[in-house]
Design goal:
The protein has 511 residues and is mainly alpha-helical. The chain is 67% helix and 2% strand. The protein has two domains: 47 residues, no CATH class; 409 residues, no CATH class.
Length: 511
């Protein structure tokens, strides 16, 4: 990880003005971004650039850059100066909700479609005979959190602080991040297949080489193709958002998930089914597919290495990605053990929905908090804005802070959103479950509890990582979406089993 001096130089190169070049009327008192919120908490009125401590450890006052007060210098006065970072957008609860609503619904319908696909393919021969594929499902669907959402958050922050304003910066950012994405997708897909083999072998004590190679080829090919397609879509979304004056943080991550679940699950089902047909007669095909994608790794590594920023991420971001994949695989094991029971076959259609909605909402919140912190400096610098201790639930959900306001908006979207998605599944006659009142109550309880936990963890985790000199854009979202998969799958399985125990044992729960 680069030194703080290098980080500061990068920050200043992107338009930040050194503190000693700016007038400050009152030195000697630290001013925080929260001090410039209006009476109703709407908007950030100023960006605070923090000066570092002097040799005696005493902080000088911050220089205040008033929102909208700066204008771009003309070319004749500052021909060599990079564009200044964009000032933070003023957002009310209504504007946040309005911007988030459409991509949230779009992402939700994507998860509904993914759930319907999973409900159909669970009866295919490949899923019946190679049940370990169910373990792969949350891990590969989690790629949108591990990789695509992280890419979207990274590019959103770069766009918001002016790091993609010139064509040279734009293409450098895009090529480096796409190469980084393909490296991560290939490696995570390979590791996910190993985890699926291990988690499937431990309970049963049975190992099949044919099935192991099939899992590897299917997982690596699915991860690579899905990440390539979704990464290109994300780039277009962020460019369009900035041109339309919309905050990319509110739009990019939900849209990353809107097609993410459906595309990934459709690819996994199609690829695994195609490879399974000739598994025994043409075993070498599966091995060649896996070897081909692994052989391409050095090319993507070489491209990513040309950009110092992406190379740093590539060298330092494996821990959250791999741990998140392992967490999602545990959720996949729960899914495998639950769906394999014919009494709980109805759970398949709802699993991508509850996991996708929770992951989408918490990714939006994590991306917003990260952007807010980047406005005040670099990771590790704003200790005042990033508490080390766990925040109280009241500060997370009930304060007038802009991030607390967005948390409330996102939480209030859970019930109406899920009602729309449940009605869509029912109207399309998807799944095996009748939507009775008691089922809806248990389902909504699980969904609300999942999002409540995730939003609280996000508030703590993003600030904690910031204090640890870690960029939350690269580290927080993989953990949060993986926890969303685990918590969502666990709570949903628990709800189905409780309904079964209290006597709801007909088509209301499963076959």
């Amino acid at each position: 990880m680069s030194s703080k001096s290098e980080q500061k130089e990068t920050h200043q190169a992107n338009g930040a003005v050194p503190v000693d070049h700016l007038p400050s009327p009152d030195r000697g008192q630290l001013v925080e971004p929260s001090d410039f919120l209006g009476p109703d908490g709407n908007g950030v009125e100023a960006v605070v650039l923090e000066s570092r401590a002097n040799a005696k450890g005493v902080r000088e006052d911050d220089a205040l850059l008033e929102n909208g007060s700066q204008s771009n210098e003309s070319d004749d006065t500052s021909t060599n100066q990079s564009p200044e970072p964009a000032s933070p957008l003023k957002e009310t609860s209504f504007s946040i909700g309005l911007q988030v609503l459409f991509p949230f619904l779009l992402a939700g319908f994507g998860t509904v479609a993914a759930g319907m696909v999973l409900d159909i393919v669970q009866h295919w021969d490949v899923f019946k005979n190679v049940t370990n594929l169910f373990i792969l499902v949350p891990a590969l669907l989690g790629l949108k959190g591990n990789l695509e959402m992280t890419l979207a958050s990274r590019l959103s922050t770069a766009a918001n602080i002016g790091q993609m304003d010139t064509p040279k910066e734009f293409w450098k950012m895009i090529t480096g991040n796409m190469a980084l994405l393909l490296v991560q997708a290939t490696v995570v897909g390979f590791l996910a297949s190993i985890a699926a083999v291990v988690f499937g072998w431990i309970p049963d004590g049975h190992f099949s080489l044919y099935h192991a190679v099939l899992l590897c080829a299917s997982s690596v090919a699915t991860a690579f193709v899905a990440s390539l397609v979704l990464g290109m879509i994300m780039i277009g979304v962020i460019i369009g958002s900035r041109k339309m004056g919309i905050n990319p943080d509110n739009v990019a991550t939900p849209i990353a998930a809107s097609l993410g679940d459906l595309v990934t699950l459709a690819l996994l089902s199609g690829i695994s089914c195609g490879l399974y047909k000739d598994l025994e007669s043409k075993f070498y095909v599966n091995a060649l597919v896996c070897a081909l994608f692994l052989a391409l790794l050095p090319i993507w590594v070489f491209i990513a290495r040309k950009d110092s920023a992406t190379w740093e991420v590539l060298c330092s971001s494996w821990e959250p990605v791999v741990i998140a994949m392992a967490i999602s695989s545990v959720g996949g094991l729960i899914l495998d053990r639950t769906v394999s029971d014919p009494n709980f076959a109805g759970m398949a259609v709802f699993t991508p929905v509850i996991n996708g909605v929770g992951g989408n909402l918490v990714a939006v919140q994590a991306s917003r908090i990260s952007t807010y912190l980047h406005m005040s400096g670099m990771p590790g610098e704003s200790s005042k804005a990033a508490p080390w201790k766990c925040p109280s639930p009241c500060s997370t959900f009930c304060s007038s802070d802009v991030n607390s306001r967005s948390a409330r908006v996102l939480f209030f979207l859970v019930v109406p959103g899920h009602l729309v998605f449940l009605y869509t599944i029912s109207s399309m006659q998807g799944g095996h479950t009748t939507l009775t009142l008691i089922f809806i109550v248990f389902y909504m309880t699980a969904a609300l509890l999942q999002v409540l936990i995730l939003l609280y963890i996000a508030d703590w985790m993003v600030h904690w990582m910031w204090c640890r000199d870690l960029d939350p854009d690269n580290f927080s979202i993989p953990y949060l979406t993986a926890l969303g998969d685990l918590i969502g799958t666990g709570l949903l399985a628990l709800s189905f089993r409780i309904l079964w125990l209290i006597g709801d044992r007909d088509s209301d729960v499963g076959d």
